[in-house]
Amino acid sequence: MNRSAINCYTITLALIVTFAPGRAIGQCTASGGPASCTVATSTSMTAGRVIRMQLSATSTTLTAPTAADFDAGINSTTGPTLTVSANAAWRLHVRSSTAVWTAITTSPGAPARANKPAGDLRWSTSPGGPFVQLTTTDATLASGTATASTGNNLHYRTAYSWTLDTPGDYGLTLVLSLTSP
């Protein structure tokens, strides 16, 4: 580098320093060579509550009932896996969006049961139960503390009656809610 380039750089630097607004809070000065300058700084952040629920499937086709299921009054179906990630305590709830199933008639002369109660679907986090009747009020399915990944399997038992559950296509919407109290 030639001397005129160095002088030009020095003059430009002097103008920037001269016209810089306000007072420098952190500053460092070094001269001569070799020289170094260190200024300590700080940084901060706020981490809010973060919760996430992932489902292995957003719909479940219940096992079609057989004659043996009608005799027993129930049959079982494995539902989705719900995986929770949270940086704070959390609670997972389940409820039905309506008090009764939707019912579509599929067999002429045998209307589908229009008043099949939501409670005919029971849920559990264990295949062996205990099973809880579904209602339109939130029920705690699981809870925990901060976790990178906690899986909860959902299992269903559907109640059937020979005299009440006529042929048809039935549906029920479940609402799963993840909260951090």
Structure description:
The protein has two helices and ten strands, in the order αβαβββββββββ. The chain is mostly beta strands and 181 residues long. It has one domain: Immunoglobulin-like (Sandwich), CATH 2.60.40. A five-stranded antiparallel sheet has the order 1-2-8-5-6. A three-stranded antiparallel sheet has the order 7-3-10, with no helix packed on it. Strands 4-9 form a two-stranded antiparallel ribbon.
Fraction of residues in helices? 10-25%
* Number of separate strands: 10
Q: What is the CATH topology descriptor?
A: Immunoglobulin-like
CATH architecture: Sandwich
Q: Which range does the strand content fall in?
A: 25-35%
The strand line-up of the biggest sheet is 1-2-8-5-6
* Total number of domains: 1
Q: How do the helices and strands follow one another from N- to C-terminus? A: HEHEEEEEEEEE
Question: Can you tell me the residue ranges where pLDDT is under 50 for at least 5 consecutive residues?
Answer: 1-20
Largest sheet: number of strands, sense, barrel closure: 5 strands, antiparallel
Which class of secondary structure composition applies to the elements?
mainly beta
Please state the average pLDDT score. Answer: 88
Distance between the termini: 65 Å
Radius of gyration in whole Å, from Cα? 33 Å
